[in-house]
Amino acid sequence: MAAVVVDPPHHGARRSSVLDEMAQASGDHAHRILMRLVSEAVSEVPALVDELVARGHPKVAVGGISMGAFIALAAAVAEPRLAAIVSILGSPDFTPRSGNVPDDLRDAVERGPSRQLERFPPRPLLLVNAGRDDRVPPEPARRFHDALRPLYTGREGQLVYREYPESGHFVREDDWRDLWQNVLTFLRAALTAP
C-alpha cells in the first residue's frame, strides 16, 4: 500500500484565512464553513483518483480524521471509484449540531452521507468514533452503521464500526495505537481482496 497525504483546501501549504474564520465562528456559521471546506475538498477527489490510477494504483481508498472524516464520507458519495472508506472521528450526518437546518445548509444536509446509504455498499467502510467525543459525538455514526447493516448482508467484514468508549476527540494513547492497527488491518483486507 502507498499512502498519499493531501492538504485539503485552506490547510497546510494551502492555508488561508478561512481556518482562522472557522476557529472564531460558532454554531451554524461554523457549520457553514465546515460544509464549504468539505465541498471544496470533495470536488478535488475525482482528479486525485484519476492521478493515482494513472500512476498505477488500481485501488484507491480514502480516509480522514475529524474534518477529514467528513470529507472521506462525502467523497465516498461523490466518487464511486473509491475502493474503501475510513472515517475516524467523523460524522455522516451533516445536520448542524443545533438540529436547525437553515435554508442555505439544506442542500448540504440533504446530500450528506447519512441520506445516501445506497452509495456505500458493497465498498468496505470502517467507521471509528470515540464514546466521549464532545466535538463529533458518536451517535450519528452508530445510527449510520445500523442503517447500513441490511445493505451489507452477506458481506462479512465489509462494514465495521469501532468505538473507543473512554476516549474523547483527542483519543487516548492506547486507543490511538489500537485504532491504527485496526485501520491498517481493515485497509489491507479491503485493498488486497480480489
Task: Tell me what the structure shows.
By secondary structure, this protein is an alpha/beta fold. It has one domain: Rossmann fold (3-Layer(aba) Sandwich). The chain contains six helices and four strands. The chain has helices at residues 17-24, 27-54, 67-78, 106-110, 139-148, 173-192, and strands at residues 60-65, 82-88, 125-130, 159-164. The model has no long low-confidence stretch (mean pLDDT 95).
Quick synopsis:
With 194 residues, the protein is an alpha/beta fold. It has helices at residues 17-24, 27-54, 67-78, 106-110, 139-148, 173-192, and strands at residues 60-65, 82-88, 125-130, 159-164.
Summarize the SSE layout with pairings.
Elements (H helix, E strand, L loop, with lengths): L16 H8 L2 H28 L5 E6 L1 H12 L3 E7 L17 H5 L14 E6 L8 H10 L10 E6 L8 H20 L2
Please state roughly what percent of the residues sit in beta strands, choosing from under 5%, 5-15%, 15-25%, 25-35%, 35-45% or over 45%: 5-15%
Number of separate strands: 4
The average pLDDT is 95
Kindly report the CATH topology. Answer: Rossmann fold
Largest sheet: 4 strands, parallel
